[in-house]
Amino acid sequence: MLDMMLDSDPTVFGAGEMSTICRHVWPNNEYCSCHERVQDCVLWSKIMADWQAGGVDLAEHARLQRRIEPVVSPARYLGGKSWRQYYDQTLALMRLSAQHAGQPVLLDSSKSPGRGLALARGAQADGLDMRVIHLVRDPRAVAYSMSKPMKVDTAAGVQKKLRAHPVARTALRWNFVNSGADALMRLIPEGHAIRVRYEDLVADPAATLRAIGEAVGLDLADLGNRIAAGEAIAAEHQVAGSRIRMSGPMSLKADMNWQDRMSPSAQRQVERLLGKRMRRYGYS
Ligand SMILES: [Zn+2]
After folding, report:
1. b/e map 136-150, b = 16+ CB within 10 Å
2. What's the structural domain count of the chain?
3. CA torsion angle for 148, 153, 156, 159 (degrees, to 10)?
4. How far is the CA of 36 from the centre of ligand 1 (A)?
5. pLDDT at 111
6. How many angstroms is it from 31 CA to the middle of ligand 1?
7. How far, in Å, is the centroid of ligand 1 from the Cα of 15?
8. What residues have their beta carbon closer than 5 A to ion ligand 1?
9. For residue range 194-220, what is the model confidence (pLDDT) as tens digits?
């Protein structure tokens, strides 16, 4: 959703969760948010053709990702040839994406902080202007959302069967992933990273986008005001991500269903497991 919002700025290409391209989106020819299969998409077909023409083997790149992008990755800390190859190829994909989209700012909304950690390491040496937005949501809402199963519906943006996950599993995963995101934030120069709470974004998109704009070096005040006034947002060529990217223009609406529908005992279970980090992010 934040990717869709920022994609509405004329200088930003909201590319979606780019880490999934080699892993499953391209090999399975899944849907782009323009409703074309990705190999037929007018934009991604060109990006991927140029990337492969530059010598990238997609299966090999996916293998590199499996070693380097986990939150804890010995291969990433050791550096060396495979990390360099991963970094150079990922950067080439990002540059081609921004170039073909005709927008100077590329937004990769991949959720794994491991991908950010892998890129931040090289960005400092390369002078790449990398900014980080750490979007966090109340873990009770995340656990409630993940407790609902979902069937495959590729055209509607659900690429694989989603099992119902136990609350404790989601809570522990939330803690692990967000600890990785915190580690990533510490690697980014002062003022170039921001933590945003989903709840603040939907309650006051104008103020939140203004703050994001300051961290990423863009003036997003006007965009924030328009979205706050109800202007619809839509994904243009998001290559993967939440199913809402397939639903066409939509205006921002808070999803706080969990507050009424999640059992008090499940809520308490999350609070018991995550109290410390929840308080740090400002959740009561
Ligand atoms: Zn497309």
Report:
1. bbbbbbbbbbbbeee
2. 1
3. 80
4. 6
5. 87
6. 8
7. 10
8. 32, 34, 41, 237
9. 999 999 999 999 999 999 999 999 999
Structure tokens at 57: 């083997």
Is the pLDDT score of 136 beyond 80?
A: yes
Q: Which residue has the tokens 């991949």?
A: 110
- Expressed in angstroms and rounded, the spacing between residue 158 Cα and the centre of ligand 1 is 16
Q: What's the 37 CA to ligand 1 centre distance in angstroms?
A: 8
Q: How far is the CA of 38 from the centre of ligand 1 (A)?
A: 6
161 has a pLDDT exceeding 80: no
Question: 34 CA to middle of ligand 1, Å?
Answer: 4
CATH number at residue 14: 3.40.50
* Torsion on CA atoms 211, 212, 215, 219, rounded to nearest 10: -80
- Of how many residues is the chain composed? 284
How many angstroms separate the alpha carbon of residue 51 from the centre of ligand 1? 16
Ligand 1: centre distance to CA 134 (Å): 25
In the structure encoding, which two tokens stand for residue 141, read together?
């809402």
Structure tokens at 67: 């070693």
| CA proximity to 17, closest of 25, 5, 9, 8 | 25
Would you say the C-alpha torsion 272, 166, 246, 103 has a positive or negative sign?
positive
> How many Å lie between the centroid of ligand 1 and the Cα of residue 180?
30
Q: Which residue, among 14, 28, 235, has the nearest Cα to 152 in the 3D structure? A: 28
